[in-house]
Backbone:
C-alpha cells in the first residue's frame, strides 16, 4: 500500500488539508466538498452543480449535500435557470462571498507558508506532476482501464 499512488496522494492531501484547516481555525471548518463548492462559486457565480462537478471532480451526490449545508449556513442561494428549468443556478450570498474572501486570503497565506517551509524543489516537482495528471484527466487520457477478461485478479 505504501507504494500505491492513489493511497499516497490521498494521505498527503488529507495531511495538507488538515494542516490548512488548523491554520484557518475552527470557525473555517468545512468539509472538502463544501470547501470546493464554496471556492467554485467564489470564482464563477452563478453556476450549476453540474459545472461544479466538472470542475471539481466531485460526484453529484457530494455536491448536492455540500450545497444543502452551505445553503443552510446562509452562504448560497438557488434559483431556477430561466432558460432551462431543469437546472438550478447557484450563487453566493453576501455572507458566502465574505466567507469565500476570507478563505481565499487564508489559502494564500497558507500557500506562502508552504513555500517558505517546504523545499522548493519538492514543491516544484509536485506541482509539475500534478499539472501533468490534471492535463491527462482533462483530456480524458486518465480513465480507469478496462480489465480484459483473461487478466487474472492479483
Residues:
Amino acid at each position: 500500500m505504501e507504494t500505491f499512488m492513489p493511497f499516497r496522494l490521498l494521505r498527503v492531501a488529507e495531511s495538507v488539508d488538515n494542516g490548512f484547516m488548523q491554520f484557518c481555525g475552527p470557525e473555517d471548518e468545512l468539509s472538502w466538498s463544501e470547501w470546493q463548492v464554496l471556492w467554485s462559486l467564489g470564482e464563477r457565480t452563478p453556476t450549476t452543480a453540474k459545472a461544479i462537478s466538472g470542475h471539481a471532480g466531485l460526484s453529484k451526490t457530494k455536491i448536492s449535500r455540500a450545497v444543502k449545508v452551505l445553503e443552510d449556513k446562509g452562504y448560497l442561494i438557488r434559483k431556477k435557470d430561466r432558460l432551462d428549468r431543469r437546472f438550478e443556478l447557484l450563487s453566493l450570498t453576501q455572507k458566502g462571498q465574505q466567507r469565500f474572501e476570507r478563505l481565499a486570503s487564508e489559502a494564500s497565506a497558507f500557500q506562502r507558508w508552504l513555500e517558505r517551509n517546504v523545499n522548493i524543489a519538492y514543491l516544484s516537482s509536485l506541482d509539475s506532476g500534478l499539472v501533468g495528471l490534471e492535463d491527462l484527466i482533462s483530456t480524458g487520457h486518465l480513465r480507469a482501464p478496462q480489465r480484459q477478461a483473461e487478466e487474472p485478479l492479483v
Residues 41 and 92 are 6 Å apart (CA to CA). Residues 5-138 form a domain with the Arc Repressor Mutant, subunit A fold (CATH 1.10.10.10). The mean pLDDT is 86.
